[in-house]
Amino acid sequence: MEVKKLSLKELGRPSLESYKMAEKLNCIVIADNIRSGQNIGALFRNADAFGFSHIYLTGISPVPPNKEVLKTALGATESVAWQYFQDEELLIKWLKDNHVKLVVVEQTSASTSLGAFRPNLDEKYAIVLGNEVDGVSPVFIKNADLCVEIPQVGTKHSLNVSVCAGIVMWHFFKELTAI
Amino acid sequence: MEVKKLSLKELGRPSLESYKMAEKLNCIVIADNIRSGQNIGALFRNADAFGFSHIYLTGISPVPPNKEVLKTALGATESVAWQYFQDEELLIKWLKDNHVKLVVVEQTSASTSLGAFRPNLDEKYAIVLGNEVDGVSPVFIKNADLCVEIPQVGTKHSLNVSVCAGIVMWHFFKELTAI
User: Fold this and answer.
1) Total-model pTM
2) What domains are there in chain A, each with its CATH number?
3) pLDDT the model gives residue A142
4) Which value does ipTM take for this structure?
5) 3-state secondary structure string across B118-147
C-alpha cells in the first residue's frame, strides 16, 4: 500500500475564524506560575489542538506578545482565548461560582492516576499546571476538587510541564469526544 | 481532607543503578532528524518516565553531550540507553530482523487514531518521531508497520514534537502496564 503524508490542505484544518466560532470542550487550562515562554507557547498549541475553551495565566507566567511565547505558539495565541489573572484567589472564586471543577495536576498524597479518571460531559473543568520547579501553588491544591497525576517509573520526578499538560489535555479530549 | 504535595523522597523514585537493572517496556523511541536539543532532551525525560528501553537517534538529531540536550534531559541521558545511527536503512533492517514493529507517528492517508490502537504485550515496538517541520522521513514511512496520529481539531497542523511523543509514549505505557 502506498502511504503518503497528508498535505496541510488535505489535513482540512479550520480557518482561524471558523475555529473561533466552533464549539469547544468545557475545559480551561490554567498556567500557574509557569516560568518558560516556550512552555506557555506549547500550552497554546495544545489548547488549539484539543479544542480547549480558554487559557488562564497567573503569577509569573509570561503572556502574549512575549517573544518566546509567540515563537513557540506558532499562531495559537490568536486562536485560543486567554486572560491573565493577577489575583489567584479571585480566579478560584470565579471558577467555584461558575461550578467549574478544579483539577490540579500534581503528585500529592491524594492524587488519582490519570488513566483511571473519567471526565464527565456534563461538567466544566479547569486543569491546573504549575511551575517547572515548584509545581502547583498551595492555593490551587487547597481548593482542588481533584488531583490527578501521570504515573511514572523513572529516575526523574517529573516530565516537562508542556509534555505533562499535553498528556492530560489529550486524556480529557479523548474521553470527552470519543475520538 | 489535607492534601499535601509529595516530596522527592516520598515519590520513591528508583536510583540510577536500580532503574538501569529494571525491566523495561519492549518499546524503543526513534528521533528521526529532530533538530532541537530541547526536544531531544524532553524525549529522554519521556523515555525515563515511561520505561522505554532505548532511544535511537538519526540524521541531524543532536546527541549527548550536546548542551541543550543535557540541560533539558535533567539527567535522563544517564538512565536511558541510547545510540546514534548514521544509516537509517541499516537501523530499519536491524529492526525488521529483530521483529520490532515500526510505528510511525505521522498524519498520513493510512493513519490509525492513537486512541484506537491497542499495543500487544507480545510485540516489540519502535515509535518514530520526525523533524519539527518536515515530519517523519519517507524511508521510515515506506517501511512502517503502522502509522498512528493524534486526532486534533485546531487551526495548527501539529503539536510540538516532544509533546506529541509524550502523548504517544504515555498511550503505550498505559496500555502495556495497565497502570
Assistant:
1) 0.96
2) 23-177 (3.40.1280.10)
3) 96
4) 0.96
5) CCCCCCEEEEEECECCCECCHHHHHCCCEE
